[in-house]
Design brief:
three-stranded antiparallel β-sheet; alpha+beta; flat; single chain
Length: about 70
């Protein structure tokens, strides 16, 4: 995912044959957060980069909210 997606992972539904990529991160031992869903990078690089940025922003908000607890 490059620099923008650092620390994030992507699911590859249908063994990578799906055009969609859910972007996620493990938050706790048994808790995963799906942060965004976007197009596969080889099909739409700009769209993929956009959802990676969105996922990064959502993760930052989630971590900030968790710190307040």
């Amino acid at each position: 995912m490059g620099e923008e997606g650092s620390g994030l992972r992507e699911l590859r539904p249908r063994r990578g044959k799906s055009r969609w990529r859910p972007i996620y991160r493990r938050i706790e031992q048994k808790l995963f957060a799906i942060l965004s869903i976007g197009p596969e990078a080889q099909i739409d690089k700009a769209g993929y980069d956009q959802v990676a940025r969105l996922a990064r922003r959502r993760l930052a908000r989630l971590e900030k909210a968790k710190e307040k607890e």
